[in-house]
Amino acid sequence: LYHMTVTLSHVADSLRAWTSDPYVKFKIAGKEVFRSKTIHKNLNPVWDERVSLLVETLRDPLYVKVQKISAEAKMALDVALDLKDPQYPEHNLGSLELSVTLTPKEGDVRDAVRNLEIYNNSDYSFISYQSMRLSDVHRKAQLWRGIVSISLIEGHGLQPMDANGLSDPYVKFRMGHQKYKSKTISKTLNPQWREQFDFHLYDEQGGFVDITVWDKDAGKKDDFMGRCTIDLSLLSKEHTHKLDLPLEEGEGVLVLLVTLTASAAVSISDLSVNMLDDPHERHQIKQRYSLWRSFHNLKDVGVVQVKVIRAEGLMAADVTGKSDPFCVVELSNDRLQTHTVYKNLNPEWNKVFTFASSWGSKVARGADSAGYCQTDACHVPLPQIQNGERKAYALKSKELTGPTKGVIFLEIDVIFNAVKAGLRTLIPIEQKYIEEEPRVSKQLLLRNFTRVRRCIMVLINAGCYINSCFEWDSPQRSICAFVLFVVVVWNFELYMIPLALLLPLAWTYMLIASGKDTRQDVVSNPIDSERKGFMNKLYAIQDVCISVQNALDEVASYGERIKNTFNWTVPFLSWLAIVALGVATIILYFIPLRYIVLAWGVNKFTKKLRDPYTIDNNELLDFLSRVPSDVQVVGEILYVSFFISFLR
């Protein structure tokens, strides 16, 4: 890669015989790489602009196009370019004077002396020159070397600044001219912020982030609580670091997550330069996570490599019909970000990210518009990834609740140790430090209610199926169920419990293997509220509220009835509970549980045969229905008090 520095000076002669508003565009390989400012109503414009461009190959010509003139010329170095219009070759359109400097992007200054061959369709010219290294071009051109993502998690043991022994802390971040301020957490010495800030890194060697903590005071100057500093030169890139920083000139500790991501604005990450594409490197990584090393460094489960290729058909977030998209790749608390492609709905990033995998986590992708006006995402579970497969993932909304416009092309490789991954699933999942504040959403409420109702309906349908066996709706099925029940209860052993859970897993796997996959019916979106009318949405919300209200009342009522049974709210029912529990204790003491369950089952299966008109019931629930809930107890007390007051 090379840096090409172009100084755009002025137009030597008259551009046209009439007034014009010229500006200049530079193109390389058919893509616009720079656009100058516009000089209004001037036939002899002077720009005096300097721009630094990235050049991957020296064989691609640099095209200079003066807009408002429809002229085009192929560049030659250190010469004045005559502007020509193919349709009017006889017209004098003026000329451009350019000074071009080409330097290698990396390497020693001694390697900067190059012999370049510049080819032109009309003739050949050979120019030899010495390249110059860039100095402050990055900052002047607003081209940053990387992105510093700082997640402010929490603070511990901060200094009390108020009379009540507490503080109202907030944090200020400063890196050069960039500043951020966190929200204020009231009345605490151990605040939880969970906020994230991004800084642009201009210095290749790193820099310092100054952090100060303040106590918010209404009506007067805020109190200083301490400071700390992050030396970015000590942190490795493309990795998330958890830092516990003690406060100087104060008390307490700040907990931060810091990630340094290289930016392709000045450092293009070539897709061919990554470790998994090198057969030797890939073999070494596979050996590192082989089964023979299953119990070596159990925390090192595997590696995930994500190639963010491009996106297509993104949603326009700007008023101009364009967007400024970039992509964020997250794995647990690791968060890496690509560069921004300006004014493009079909961006190409060609970025490679590598993560250390903690199994069970998911990789989230997002294409975000500049200013966070519009955020799209997709969620990819790691176990479902096919290594090396370039796949288009449809983007969804930020909450992953529904589809949105556009797709993103990713290529993902996951190399892991199966034993370590299995052991990793048995320990608590890594806490997600940065989570958005929950908000009330009618769509989310409807979706969650539908999910709960679907789970409950599975249990209800299973209960109805079992009850149909007791009711002898199908004699053949009831006979088979009765025989199976007797055999299982009579020969029951503890190993039958995991065996019973294993059978449905094996059955589902057989269905999937045979092509009868029913999982799509389960994971499909339960509601599509966007297509419903306003009144339908209103009625749906009312139904949800009523159902939730009744369900909560039912659960709370039975819980209070059990409590009131033991509280002797109704002494007669409490005495009945004592007698029933005493009899159950004696029966369970003298009679094995196997015989009791067998007797219960025989009674349930033969009840319908003995009395076809009997009404099935649950004795325990019938008993609890006689015990009043707290609402009923309070209502009875108020009614008695009112009746006594009325008699008086």
Structural features, described:
The protein is an alpha+beta fold and 648 residues long. Helices cover 29% and strands 31% of the residues. The chain has five domains: 2-104, Immunoglobulin-like; 139-261, C2 domain (Immunoglobulin-like, Sandwich); 266-428 and 638-647, Sandwich (Immunoglobulin-like), CATH 2.60.40.150; 444-492, no CATH class; 495-514 and 537-616, no CATH class. The chain has helices spanning 137-140, 279-288, 418-424, 442-471, 475-490, 496-513, 519-523, 534-566, 571-590, 593-610, 619-625, 630-647, and strands at 2-11, 23-28, 31-35, 46-55, 62-67, 71-74, 80-82, 95-104, 113-119, 124-130, 146-156, 169-175, 178-181, 192-201, 208-215, 223-231, 240-246, 253-262, 302-312, 326-331, 334-337, 348-357, 362-368, 375-381, 389-397, 403-416. The strands form six sheets. It has an eight-stranded antiparallel β-sheet, covered by helices on one side. A four-stranded antiparallel β-sheet has the order 4-1-8-7, with no helix packed on it. Helix 5 runs antiparallel to helix 10 (593-610). This is Multiple C2 domains, transmembrane 1a. The chain crosses the membrane at residues 482-509, 570-591.
CATH superfamily of the largest domain: C2 domain
User: Strand arrangement, largest sheet?
Assistant: 21-20-23-24-25-26-19-22
Estimated helix fraction: 25-40%
Describe the main β-sheet briefly.
8 strands, antiparallel
- Distance from N terminus to C terminus (CA atoms, Å) equals 99 Å
Uncertain parts: 69-76, 105-143, 263-270, 360-365, 367-374, 522-530
Mean pLDDT: 76
Oligomerization state: single chain
Structural class: alpha+beta
Under the CATH scheme, which class of the largest domain? Answer: Mainly Beta
CATH architecture of the largest domain: Sandwich
Structural domains: how many: 5
Proportion of strand residues? 25-35%
The total of beta strands comes to 26
CATH level-3 fold name of the largest domain: Immunoglobulin-like
Question: Number of helical segments?
Answer: 12
Radius of gyration: 36 Å
Shape: elongated
